[in-house]
Amino acid sequence: MSARALAFVLVSLPAVAHADLVDVGLRTGYARPVGAFDLGTHASDGSFGAIPFALDATFGLQPIERARVDTSWRAAAGVFVAYAPTIPTLCTSAPECISSIGSDVELGMLARVHAPRMAFVLPEAEIGAGWSWSSRSLVDRDAVSTRSWNGPVLLRGALVPSIRLGVHTRFGLVVGGSIARSTSFSLEAPGVTRHGIDGARVHGTLDFGLRFAVDLDW
Amino acid sequence: MKTAAVLGAAAVLACCASPDGDAIAMIHSSPGIGFDDLRWSPSLGRVLVPGGRSGVLDLVTPDTGEVVGIEGFATTGDYSGGHDDGPTSVDEAEGFLYVTDRTTTTLAVVDPAKQAIVGNVPLATTPDYVRWVATTRELWVSEPSGAQIEIFSVGTSVAGAPPALRSVATIPVENGPESLVIDPVRGRAYTHHWQSSTVGIDVRTRALLGTWPNGCAASRGIELEPEHGWVLAACNEGTLTVLDPEQGGRVLSVLAAGAGFDVMGYARSTRHVYLAGGACACLTVVGLAPTGTLSVLGRFDAPSDTHCAVADDRGHAWVCAPSEGGVRRVSDPFPSWAGSP
Question: Can you give the CATH number for the domain in which B115 is found?
Protein backbone atom coordinates (compact mmCIF):
# COMPACT_ATOMS: atom_id res chain seq x y z
CA MET A 1 0.00 0.00 0.00
CA SER A 2 1.43 3.34 -1.00
CA ALA A 3 1.65 6.25 1.39
CA ARG A 4 -0.96 8.10 -0.63
CA ALA A 5 -3.39 5.18 -0.40
CA LEU A 6 -2.77 4.83 3.33
CA ALA A 7 -3.47 8.52 3.86
CA PHE A 8 -6.68 8.18 1.88
CA VAL A 9 -7.84 5.28 4.05
CA LEU A 10 -7.06 7.14 7.27
CA VAL A 11 -8.88 10.24 6.11
CA SER A 12 -11.85 8.14 5.05
CA LEU A 13 -12.16 6.21 8.36
CA PRO A 14 -14.76 8.46 10.00
CA ALA A 15 -17.03 8.14 7.01
CA VAL A 16 -16.64 4.36 6.94
CA ALA A 17 -17.45 4.12 10.69
CA HIS A 18 -20.33 6.53 10.42
CA ALA A 19 -19.17 8.03 13.66
CA ASP A 20 -19.28 11.52 14.91
CA LEU A 21 -17.86 11.04 18.39
CA VAL A 22 -14.77 9.42 19.72
CA ASP A 23 -14.99 8.57 23.39
CA VAL A 24 -11.66 8.10 25.15
CA GLY A 25 -11.69 6.96 28.74
CA LEU A 26 -9.12 6.41 31.44
CA ARG A 27 -10.04 4.42 34.49
CA THR A 28 -8.61 3.02 37.68
CA GLY A 29 -9.93 1.34 40.77
CA TYR A 30 -9.84 -2.03 42.45
CA ALA A 31 -10.34 -5.45 40.89
CA ARG A 32 -11.13 -8.31 43.24
CA PRO A 33 -10.03 -11.70 41.91
CA VAL A 34 -12.57 -14.53 41.86
CA GLY A 35 -12.65 -18.03 40.45
CA ALA A 36 -9.65 -20.20 39.67
CA PHE A 37 -6.83 -20.10 37.14
CA ASP A 38 -6.46 -23.85 37.12
CA LEU A 39 -7.26 -26.96 39.09
CA GLY A 40 -5.14 -26.02 42.08
CA THR A 41 -4.84 -22.27 41.99
CA HIS A 42 -7.56 -19.82 42.86
CA ALA A 43 -7.22 -16.34 41.46
CA SER A 44 -7.00 -14.94 44.99
CA ASP A 45 -4.19 -17.27 46.13
CA GLY A 46 -1.37 -15.04 45.00
CA SER A 47 -3.05 -11.68 45.03
CA PHE A 48 -5.29 -9.64 47.29
CA GLY A 49 -6.48 -7.84 44.20
CA ALA A 50 -5.34 -5.52 41.46
CA ILE A 51 -5.23 -1.82 40.79
CA PRO A 52 -6.13 -1.63 37.11
CA PHE A 53 -5.20 1.25 34.88
CA ALA A 54 -7.21 1.03 31.69
CA LEU A 55 -7.60 3.01 28.55
CA ASP A 56 -10.55 2.62 26.22
CA ALA A 57 -11.50 4.28 23.00
CA THR A 58 -14.86 3.83 21.33
CA PHE A 59 -16.26 5.28 18.16
CA GLY A 60 -19.90 6.29 17.82
CA LEU A 61 -21.76 4.01 15.48
CA GLN A 62 -24.19 6.61 14.15
CA PRO A 63 -23.96 10.35 13.55
CA ILE A 64 -25.57 12.53 16.15
CA GLU A 65 -25.88 16.22 16.79
CA ARG A 66 -23.78 17.52 19.61
CA ALA A 67 -26.86 19.01 21.29
CA ARG A 68 -28.48 15.54 21.51
CA VAL A 69 -25.49 13.66 22.81
CA ASP A 70 -26.81 13.39 26.36
CA THR A 71 -30.47 12.91 25.54
CA SER A 72 -30.35 10.14 22.97
CA TRP A 73 -29.62 6.48 22.93
CA ARG A 74 -26.21 5.96 21.38
CA ALA A 75 -23.98 3.00 20.68
CA ALA A 76 -20.25 2.88 20.25
CA ALA A 77 -17.58 0.27 19.69
CA GLY A 78 -13.86 0.25 20.20
CA VAL A 79 -10.92 -1.18 22.05
CA PHE A 80 -9.92 -1.66 25.67
CA VAL A 81 -6.46 -2.12 27.10
CA ALA A 82 -5.62 -2.54 30.76
CA TYR A 83 -2.59 -3.03 32.92
CA ALA A 84 -3.18 -3.97 36.53
CA PRO A 85 -0.41 -4.43 39.07
CA THR A 86 -1.54 -7.03 41.59
CA ILE A 87 -1.03 -6.90 45.33
CA PRO A 88 0.97 -9.97 46.43
CA THR A 89 -0.18 -12.17 49.30
CA LEU A 90 3.30 -13.51 49.99
CA CYS A 91 6.34 -11.45 50.84
CA THR A 92 7.99 -10.44 54.07
CA SER A 93 9.65 -7.10 53.46
CA ALA A 94 8.78 -3.98 51.54
CA PRO A 95 11.46 -4.44 48.88
CA GLU A 96 10.42 -8.06 48.32
CA CYS A 97 6.76 -7.11 48.20
CA ILE A 98 7.48 -4.48 45.59
CA SER A 99 9.50 -6.99 43.60
CA SER A 100 6.70 -9.54 43.97
CA ILE A 101 4.01 -7.35 42.45
CA GLY A 102 2.32 -9.32 39.71
CA SER A 103 0.29 -8.13 36.79
CA ASP A 104 -2.89 -8.63 34.83
CA VAL A 105 -2.85 -7.35 31.27
CA GLU A 106 -5.89 -7.33 29.06
CA LEU A 107 -6.53 -6.37 25.48
CA GLY A 108 -10.02 -6.48 24.06
CA MET A 109 -12.90 -5.11 22.08
CA LEU A 110 -15.56 -3.04 23.74
CA ALA A 111 -19.12 -1.98 22.93
CA ARG A 112 -20.79 0.81 24.84
CA VAL A 113 -24.38 1.95 25.07
CA HIS A 114 -25.23 5.45 26.23
CA ALA A 115 -28.75 5.93 27.58
CA PRO A 116 -30.48 9.28 27.75
CA ARG A 117 -29.61 11.40 30.75
CA MET A 118 -31.55 10.64 33.93
CA ALA A 119 -31.57 13.75 36.06
CA PHE A 120 -27.89 14.66 36.02
CA VAL A 121 -26.63 11.09 35.52
CA LEU A 122 -25.52 9.80 32.15
CA PRO A 123 -26.17 6.05 32.27
CA GLU A 124 -23.69 3.98 30.32
CA ALA A 125 -23.14 0.28 29.99
CA GLU A 126 -20.31 -1.54 28.31
CA ILE A 127 -19.62 -5.07 27.26
CA GLY A 128 -16.57 -6.64 25.71
CA ALA A 129 -14.27 -9.58 25.21
CA GLY A 130 -10.58 -10.08 24.61
CA TRP A 131 -7.47 -11.79 25.92
CA SER A 132 -5.74 -11.58 29.27
CA TRP A 133 -2.29 -12.37 30.59
CA SER A 134 -1.73 -12.83 34.32
CA SER A 135 1.43 -13.41 36.29
CA ARG A 136 2.09 -13.89 40.00
CA SER A 137 5.58 -13.83 41.47
CA LEU A 138 7.38 -14.31 44.72
CA VAL A 139 10.81 -12.81 45.12
CA ASP A 140 12.81 -13.99 48.12
CA ARG A 141 16.24 -12.45 48.19
CA ASP A 142 17.52 -13.18 44.69
CA ALA A 143 15.25 -16.17 44.06
CA VAL A 144 12.22 -15.64 41.85
CA SER A 145 9.27 -17.89 41.17
CA THR A 146 6.69 -16.78 38.64
CA ARG A 147 3.45 -18.39 37.58
CA SER A 148 1.80 -17.10 34.40
CA TRP A 149 -1.51 -17.81 32.74
CA ASN A 150 -3.24 -16.47 29.68
CA GLY A 151 -6.48 -17.06 27.90
CA PRO A 152 -9.59 -15.45 26.48
CA VAL A 153 -11.67 -12.91 28.32
CA LEU A 154 -15.06 -14.34 27.59
CA LEU A 155 -17.02 -11.39 28.84
CA ARG A 156 -16.30 -8.01 30.31
CA GLY A 157 -19.14 -5.82 31.40
CA ALA A 158 -19.74 -2.76 33.51
CA LEU A 159 -22.23 -0.11 34.38
CA VAL A 160 -20.72 3.35 34.22
CA PRO A 161 -23.05 6.02 35.58
CA SER A 162 -21.37 9.31 34.81
CA ILE A 163 -21.83 13.00 35.21
CA ARG A 164 -20.78 15.62 32.74
CA LEU A 165 -17.95 17.82 33.88
CA GLY A 166 -17.82 19.94 30.75
CA VAL A 167 -18.93 19.95 27.15
CA HIS A 168 -16.47 17.20 26.28
CA THR A 169 -15.67 15.59 29.60
CA ARG A 170 -17.40 13.09 31.88
CA PHE A 171 -16.60 11.41 35.14
CA GLY A 172 -18.21 8.23 36.35
CA LEU A 173 -18.25 5.21 38.55
CA VAL A 174 -17.38 1.79 37.17
CA VAL A 175 -19.08 -1.27 38.64
CA GLY A 176 -18.60 -4.45 36.71
CA GLY A 177 -16.53 -7.49 36.20
CA SER A 178 -14.96 -9.90 33.81
CA ILE A 179 -14.99 -13.61 33.12
CA ALA A 180 -11.93 -15.26 31.63
CA ARG A 181 -10.64 -18.75 31.05
CA SER A 182 -7.04 -19.84 31.39
CA THR A 183 -5.82 -21.85 28.44
CA SER A 184 -2.09 -21.66 29.01
CA PHE A 185 0.18 -21.86 32.05
CA SER A 186 3.87 -21.61 32.71
CA LEU A 187 6.02 -21.79 35.81
CA GLU A 188 9.51 -20.35 36.01
CA ALA A 189 11.22 -21.13 39.29
CA PRO A 190 14.73 -21.91 40.55
CA GLY A 191 15.87 -24.94 38.62
CA VAL A 192 12.49 -25.82 37.16
CA THR A 193 10.11 -24.80 34.42
CA ARG A 194 6.72 -26.16 33.61
CA HIS A 195 4.35 -25.45 30.75
CA GLY A 196 0.85 -26.68 30.15
CA ILE A 197 -2.25 -26.08 32.16
CA ASP A 198 -3.61 -28.67 34.56
CA GLY A 199 -7.37 -28.34 34.52
CA ALA A 200 -8.28 -24.99 32.97
CA ARG A 201 -10.74 -23.04 35.07
CA VAL A 202 -12.82 -19.90 34.83
CA HIS A 203 -11.72 -16.86 36.76
CA GLY A 204 -12.51 -13.21 36.71
CA THR A 205 -12.65 -9.96 38.56
CA LEU A 206 -15.20 -7.83 40.31
CA ASP A 207 -14.36 -4.27 39.36
CA PHE A 208 -14.98 -1.06 41.20
CA GLY A 209 -13.48 2.16 39.94
CA LEU A 210 -13.66 5.58 38.48
CA ARG A 211 -13.54 6.60 34.86
CA PHE A 212 -12.67 9.92 33.31
CA ALA A 213 -13.76 10.30 29.70
CA VAL A 214 -13.39 12.77 26.90
CA ASP A 215 -15.71 12.74 23.90
CA LEU A 216 -14.36 14.41 20.86
CA ASP A 217 -16.00 15.37 17.62
CA TRP A 218 -14.35 13.31 14.92
CA MET B 1 -25.16 -16.96 32.62
CA LYS B 2 -24.20 -20.19 34.35
CA THR B 3 -20.55 -19.14 34.47
CA ALA B 4 -21.51 -15.75 35.84
CA ALA B 5 -23.57 -17.43 38.51
CA VAL B 6 -20.66 -19.68 39.43
CA LEU B 7 -18.30 -16.74 39.64
CA GLY B 8 -20.79 -14.79 41.70
CA ALA B 9 -21.14 -17.70 44.07
CA ALA B 10 -17.37 -18.05 44.19
CA ALA B 11 -17.04 -14.41 45.13
CA VAL B 12 -19.50 -14.82 47.96
CA LEU B 13 -17.87 -18.01 49.15
CA ALA B 14 -14.40 -16.50 48.90
CA CYS B 15 -15.30 -13.82 51.37
CA CYS B 16 -17.22 -16.02 53.76
CA ALA B 17 -15.97 -19.60 53.46
CA SER B 18 -15.46 -21.38 56.76
CA PRO B 19 -12.68 -23.94 57.09
CA ASP B 20 -13.49 -27.54 56.31
CA GLY B 21 -12.98 -30.38 58.74
CA ASP B 22 -13.72 -31.02 62.37
CA ALA B 23 -12.35 -28.40 64.74
CA ILE B 24 -10.50 -29.94 67.68
CA ALA B 25 -9.29 -27.56 70.36
CA MET B 26 -5.98 -28.18 72.07
CA ILE B 27 -5.32 -27.71 75.78
CA HIS B 28 -5.14 -24.01 76.75
CA SER B 29 -6.32 -23.04 73.28
CA SER B 30 -7.09 -19.39 74.02
CA PRO B 31 -5.89 -16.88 72.79
CA GLY B 32 -4.32 -19.03 70.08
CA ILE B 33 -1.40 -21.40 69.67
CA GLY B 34 1.68 -21.01 67.51
CA PHE B 35 1.82 -24.38 65.83
CA ASP B 36 4.64 -25.45 63.57
CA ASP B 37 5.63 -29.13 63.47
CA LEU B 38 2.89 -31.76 63.51
CA ARG B 39 3.66 -35.48 63.62
CA TRP B 40 1.83 -38.76 63.43
CA SER B 41 2.95 -41.47 65.82
CA PRO B 42 2.10 -44.92 64.44
CA SER B 43 3.11 -46.66 67.66
CA LEU B 44 1.02 -44.42 69.90
CA GLY B 45 -1.75 -44.03 67.35
CA ARG B 46 -1.84 -40.33 68.14
CA VAL B 47 -1.32 -37.08 66.32
CA LEU B 48 1.46 -35.20 68.10
CA VAL B 49 0.81 -31.47 68.34
CA PRO B 50 3.40 -29.29 70.07
CA GLY B 51 1.58 -26.23 71.38
CA GLY B 52 3.77 -23.21 70.94
CA ARG B 53 2.74 -20.66 73.61
CA SER B 54 0.42 -23.04 75.49
CA GLY B 55 3.32 -25.04 76.92
CA VAL B 56 1.64 -28.34 76.14
CA LEU B 57 2.42 -31.29 73.94
CA ASP B 58 -1.03 -32.39 72.82
CA LEU B 59 -1.71 -35.99 71.82
CA VAL B 60 -4.85 -36.37 69.75
CA THR B 61 -6.73 -39.63 69.20
CA PRO B 62 -7.56 -39.53 65.49
CA ASP B 63 -10.96 -41.21 65.52
CA THR B 64 -12.47 -39.60 68.60
CA GLY B 65 -10.64 -36.29 68.69
CA GLU B 66 -9.80 -36.84 72.35
CA VAL B 67 -6.90 -34.65 73.46
CA VAL B 68 -4.41 -35.50 76.18
CA GLY B 69 -1.95 -32.78 77.12
CA ILE B 70 1.53 -33.21 78.50
CA GLU B 71 2.36 -29.99 80.28
CA GLY B 72 5.53 -28.51 81.66
CA PHE B 73 6.93 -26.69 78.67
CA ALA B 74 7.41 -22.94 78.55
CA THR B 75 4.25 -20.86 78.33
CA THR B 76 3.54 -17.32 77.32
CA GLY B 77 0.37 -15.39 77.95
CA ASP B 78 0.26 -13.50 74.72
CA TYR B 79 -0.19 -14.98 71.31
CA SER B 80 1.65 -13.00 68.65
CA GLY B 81 0.47 -15.02 65.67
CA GLY B 82 3.87 -16.60 65.19
CA HIS B 83 5.40 -19.80 66.49
CA ASP B 84 8.40 -18.51 68.39
CA ASP B 85 7.42 -19.65 71.87
CA GLY B 86 7.45 -22.91 73.79
CA PRO B 87 7.31 -26.39 72.27
CA THR B 88 7.15 -26.40 68.48
CA SER B 89 8.65 -29.66 67.24
CA VAL B 90 8.48 -33.30 68.24
CA ASP B 91 9.68 -36.70 67.12
CA GLU B 92 9.33 -40.20 68.47
CA ALA B 93 11.98 -42.81 69.13
CA GLU B 94 11.98 -46.08 71.02
CA GLY B 95 9.05 -45.27 73.26
CA PHE B 96 10.00 -41.71 74.08
CA LEU B 97 9.05 -38.38 72.57
CA TYR B 98 11.60 -35.66 72.02
CA VAL B 99 10.37 -32.09 72.06
CA THR B 100 12.14 -28.82 71.35
CA ASP B 101 11.23 -25.72 73.32
CA ARG B 102 12.06 -22.40 71.73
CA THR B 103 11.59 -20.32 74.85
CA THR B 104 13.92 -22.34 77.07
CA THR B 105 16.15 -23.46 74.17
CA THR B 106 16.02 -27.03 75.37
CA LEU B 107 15.39 -30.52 74.09
CA ALA B 108 13.02 -32.40 76.38
CA VAL B 109 12.49 -36.13 76.76
CA VAL B 110 8.85 -37.07 77.27
CA ASP B 111 7.58 -40.40 78.52
CA PRO B 112 4.16 -40.78 76.91
CA ALA B 113 3.21 -43.57 79.29
CA LYS B 114 3.78 -41.31 82.29
CA GLN B 115 2.54 -38.29 80.37
CA ALA B 116 5.44 -36.33 81.80
CA ILE B 117 8.71 -34.67 80.90
CA VAL B 118 11.43 -36.95 82.19
CA GLY B 119 14.58 -35.29 80.90
CA ASN B 120 15.99 -32.12 79.49
CA VAL B 121 19.17 -30.94 77.79
CA PRO B 122 20.17 -27.46 76.62
CA LEU B 123 20.45 -26.65 72.94
CA ALA B 124 23.15 -24.51 71.39
CA THR B 125 20.62 -22.02 70.07
CA THR B 126 16.96 -21.66 69.11
CA PRO B 127 15.65 -24.90 67.61
CA ASP B 128 13.39 -25.47 64.65
CA TYR B 129 12.87 -29.21 64.09
CA VAL B 130 13.98 -32.35 65.88
CA ARG B 131 14.28 -35.67 64.05
CA TRP B 132 15.30 -39.14 65.13
CA VAL B 133 18.10 -40.73 63.14
CA ALA B 134 17.78 -44.44 63.80
CA THR B 135 20.80 -45.30 61.69
CA THR B 136 23.16 -43.67 64.17
CA ARG B 137 20.93 -43.47 67.25
CA GLU B 138 21.03 -39.70 67.18
CA LEU B 139 18.68 -36.80 67.37
CA TRP B 140 19.27 -34.05 64.85
CA VAL B 141 17.99 -30.61 65.72
CA SER B 142 17.89 -27.91 63.08
CA GLU B 143 18.95 -24.52 64.40
CA PRO B 144 18.48 -21.86 61.73
CA SER B 145 19.59 -19.03 64.00
CA GLY B 146 22.96 -20.75 64.20
CA ALA B 147 22.87 -21.92 60.56
CA GLN B 148 23.53 -25.44 61.80
CA ILE B 149 22.17 -28.83 62.71
CA GLU B 150 23.03 -29.89 66.25
CA ILE B 151 23.48 -33.61 66.80
CA PHE B 152 22.75 -35.45 70.03
CA SER B 153 23.76 -38.98 70.76
CA VAL B 154 21.01 -40.97 72.43
CA GLY B 155 21.88 -43.48 75.09
CA THR B 156 20.02 -46.66 75.80
CA SER B 157 17.07 -46.56 78.14
CA VAL B 158 17.53 -48.91 81.08
CA ALA B 159 14.52 -50.04 83.09
CA GLY B 160 12.36 -47.28 81.67
CA ALA B 161 14.75 -44.52 82.62
CA PRO B 162 15.09 -41.77 80.05
CA PRO B 163 18.04 -42.19 77.69
CA ALA B 164 20.96 -39.86 78.17
CA LEU B 165 21.33 -37.15 75.55
CA ARG B 166 24.65 -35.62 74.71
CA SER B 167 25.46 -32.94 72.17
CA VAL B 168 28.20 -34.42 70.01
CA ALA B 169 28.52 -32.34 66.87
CA THR B 170 27.13 -29.64 64.66
CA ILE B 171 26.82 -29.49 60.90
CA PRO B 172 26.90 -26.03 59.36
CA VAL B 173 24.17 -25.29 56.82
CA GLU B 174 24.67 -21.83 55.45
CA ASN B 175 21.45 -19.99 54.57
CA GLY B 176 19.51 -22.68 56.41
CA PRO B 177 18.61 -25.19 57.61
CA GLU B 178 14.90 -24.94 56.85
CA SER B 179 12.97 -28.11 57.68
CA LEU B 180 14.54 -31.50 58.19
CA VAL B 181 13.69 -35.02 57.12
CA ILE B 182 15.52 -38.30 57.57
CA ASP B 183 15.69 -41.25 55.20
CA PRO B 184 16.44 -44.09 57.63
CA VAL B 185 16.78 -46.70 54.88
CA ARG B 186 19.45 -44.88 52.92
CA GLY B 187 21.00 -43.12 55.90
CA ARG B 188 20.48 -39.60 54.68
CA ALA B 189 19.16 -36.32 55.99
CA TYR B 190 17.69 -33.58 53.84
CA THR B 191 17.11 -29.94 54.58
CA HIS B 192 16.56 -26.76 52.61
CA HIS B 193 18.41 -23.58 52.08
CA TRP B 194 15.99 -20.71 52.61
CA GLN B 195 15.95 -20.09 48.89
CA SER B 196 16.21 -22.24 45.80
CA SER B 197 17.86 -25.46 46.92
CA THR B 198 17.83 -28.57 49.05
CA VAL B 199 20.85 -30.27 50.55
CA GLY B 200 21.48 -33.93 51.26
CA ILE B 201 23.70 -35.13 54.12
CA ASP B 202 25.07 -38.59 54.87
CA VAL B 203 24.05 -39.25 58.46
CA ARG B 204 26.99 -41.56 59.14
CA THR B 205 29.79 -39.41 57.79
CA ARG B 206 27.88 -36.13 58.21
CA ALA B 207 29.25 -35.18 54.83
CA LEU B 208 27.37 -33.14 52.27
CA LEU B 209 26.00 -35.34 49.48
CA GLY B 210 24.83 -32.58 47.24
CA THR B 211 22.93 -29.37 46.77
CA TRP B 212 20.05 -29.45 44.33
CA PRO B 213 17.69 -26.80 42.93
CA ASN B 214 14.26 -27.38 44.43
CA GLY B 215 12.04 -25.00 42.47
CA CYS B 216 11.44 -22.75 45.46
CA ALA B 217 11.91 -19.03 45.69
CA ALA B 218 11.15 -19.53 49.40
CA SER B 219 11.85 -23.09 50.59
CA ARG B 220 9.65 -24.36 53.39
CA GLY B 221 8.38 -27.89 54.06
CA ILE B 222 10.16 -31.13 53.36
CA GLU B 223 9.01 -34.74 53.30
CA LEU B 224 10.29 -38.12 52.20
CA GLU B 225 8.71 -40.65 49.90
CA PRO B 226 10.38 -43.67 51.48
CA GLU B 227 9.91 -46.30 48.76
CA HIS B 228 12.15 -44.55 46.24
CA GLY B 229 13.87 -42.17 48.61
CA TRP B 230 12.43 -39.14 46.85
CA VAL B 231 12.43 -35.79 48.58
CA LEU B 232 9.37 -33.56 48.44
CA ALA B 233 10.02 -29.83 48.67
CA ALA B 234 7.20 -27.43 49.43
CA CYS B 235 7.65 -23.77 48.63
CA ASN B 236 5.98 -20.85 50.31
CA GLU B 237 4.79 -19.62 46.91
CA GLY B 238 2.83 -22.82 46.32
CA THR B 239 5.20 -24.96 44.31
CA LEU B 240 5.80 -28.61 45.15
CA THR B 241 8.67 -30.54 43.63
CA VAL B 242 9.84 -34.14 43.74
CA LEU B 243 13.62 -34.57 43.82
CA ASP B 244 15.42 -37.83 43.27
CA PRO B 245 18.73 -37.81 45.19
CA GLU B 246 19.73 -41.02 43.42
CA GLN B 247 19.77 -39.05 40.16
CA GLY B 248 21.74 -36.11 41.47
CA GLY B 249 18.68 -34.34 42.76
CA ARG B 250 16.88 -34.38 39.43
CA VAL B 251 13.41 -32.83 39.59
CA LEU B 252 11.01 -35.62 38.69
CA SER B 253 7.89 -33.51 38.80
CA VAL B 254 6.80 -30.01 39.69
CA LEU B 255 3.40 -28.62 40.43
CA ALA B 256 2.10 -25.19 41.41
CA ALA B 257 -1.11 -24.85 43.37
CA GLY B 258 -2.31 -22.67 46.20
CA ALA B 259 0.09 -20.47 48.16
CA GLY B 260 1.63 -20.09 51.60
CA PHE B 261 2.74 -23.69 52.10
CA ASP B 262 5.07 -24.74 54.87
CA VAL B 263 4.94 -27.96 56.90
CA MET B 264 3.40 -30.71 54.79
CA GLY B 265 2.07 -34.16 55.41
CA TYR B 266 2.49 -37.32 53.40
CA ALA B 267 0.27 -40.40 53.64
CA ARG B 268 2.40 -43.32 52.61
CA SER B 269 -0.45 -45.76 52.02
CA THR B 270 -2.40 -43.49 49.66
CA ARG B 271 0.57 -41.49 48.34
CA HIS B 272 -1.28 -38.29 49.12
CA VAL B 273 0.57 -35.08 49.96
CA TYR B 274 -1.17 -32.50 52.14
CA LEU B 275 -0.22 -28.88 51.74
CA ALA B 276 -1.76 -26.25 54.00
CA GLY B 277 -1.40 -22.61 53.09
CA GLY B 278 -2.58 -19.47 54.78
CA ALA B 279 -2.32 -17.29 51.68
CA CYS B 280 -4.78 -19.53 49.88
CA ALA B 281 -6.62 -20.47 53.08
CA CYS B 282 -6.58 -23.95 51.67
CA LEU B 283 -5.55 -27.53 52.17
CA THR B 284 -4.42 -28.87 48.81
CA VAL B 285 -4.34 -32.63 48.32
CA VAL B 286 -1.81 -33.85 45.79
CA GLY B 287 -1.29 -37.37 44.49
CA LEU B 288 2.26 -38.63 44.04
CA ALA B 289 2.29 -41.41 41.46
CA PRO B 290 4.82 -44.24 41.76
CA THR B 291 6.41 -42.75 38.63
CA GLY B 292 7.07 -39.51 40.50
CA THR B 293 4.36 -37.48 38.79
CA LEU B 294 2.39 -35.02 40.90
CA SER B 295 -1.31 -34.34 40.35
CA VAL B 296 -3.67 -32.02 42.17
CA LEU B 297 -6.56 -34.09 43.51
CA GLY B 298 -8.50 -31.28 45.13
CA ARG B 299 -8.54 -28.67 47.81
CA PHE B 300 -10.42 -27.79 50.98
CA ASP B 301 -10.99 -24.50 52.72
CA ALA B 302 -8.59 -24.08 55.63
CA PRO B 303 -7.96 -21.41 58.26
CA SER B 304 -6.40 -18.28 56.83
CA ASP B 305 -3.45 -18.53 59.23
CA THR B 306 -2.67 -22.19 58.68
CA HIS B 307 0.72 -23.33 57.45
CA CYS B 308 1.10 -26.90 58.69
CA ALA B 309 -0.41 -30.29 57.95
CA VAL B 310 0.22 -33.92 58.73
CA ALA B 311 -1.33 -37.23 57.72
CA ASP B 312 -2.37 -40.10 59.95
CA ASP B 313 -2.89 -43.66 58.72
CA ARG B 314 -6.67 -43.49 59.09
CA GLY B 315 -7.42 -41.40 56.00
CA HIS B 316 -7.25 -38.00 57.68
CA ALA B 317 -5.28 -34.89 57.03
CA TRP B 318 -4.67 -32.69 60.06
CA VAL B 319 -4.37 -28.96 59.57
CA CYS B 320 -3.17 -26.52 62.18
CA ALA B 321 -5.50 -23.67 63.05
CA PRO B 322 -3.40 -21.29 65.16
CA SER B 323 -5.96 -18.61 65.96
CA GLU B 324 -8.48 -21.33 66.84
CA GLY B 325 -5.93 -22.85 69.18
CA GLY B 326 -6.52 -26.24 67.63
CA VAL B 327 -6.32 -28.46 64.62
CA ARG B 328 -8.82 -29.45 61.97
CA ARG B 329 -9.35 -33.04 61.00
CA VAL B 330 -10.18 -33.40 57.33
CA SER B 331 -11.36 -36.73 55.95
CA ASP B 332 -9.63 -37.35 52.65
CA PRO B 333 -12.20 -38.44 50.06
CA PHE B 334 -9.78 -38.91 47.19
CA PRO B 335 -8.76 -42.32 45.88
CA SER B 336 -5.42 -43.82 46.71
CA TRP B 337 -2.71 -42.81 44.27
CA ALA B 338 -0.64 -45.90 44.99
CA GLY B 339 -1.84 -47.64 41.85
CA SER B 340 -1.82 -44.61 39.59
CA PRO B 341 0.29 -44.64 36.43
Answer: 2.130.10.10
**Record: contact B235-A198, CB cut-off 8 A:** no
In DSSP notation, B15-68 reads: HHPPPPSEEEEPTT-TT-------EEETTTTEEEEEETTTTEEEEE-TTT--EE
> B217 and A204 in contact by Cβ < 8 A?
no
Residue B91 lies in a domain: yes
The answer to whether residue B283 is domain-embedded is no
B272 by DSSP, 3-state: which?
strand
Per-residue pLDDT, A162: 97
In a domain, B120, yes or no: yes
Range of the domain at B168: 42-53+62-172
Number of domains, chain B: 1
The percentage of chain B sitting over the pLDDT mark of 70, rounded to a whole number, equals: 95
B17 has pLDDT over 80: no
CB B336 within 8 A of CB B271: yes
Residues 32-91 of A with CB under 8 A from B: 32, 34-36, 38-42, 44-46, 89-90
In a domain, B93, yes or no: yes
ipTM for this prediction: 0.90
Is the Cβ pair A90, B259 closer than 8 Å? yes
Q: Which site among B7, B178, B193, B262 would you substitute to test the A interface, given the most A Cβ atoms closer than 10 Å to its Cβ? A: B7
**Would an 8 Å CB–CB cutoff place A145 in contact with chain B?**
yes
Residue-level pLDDT at B250 = 97
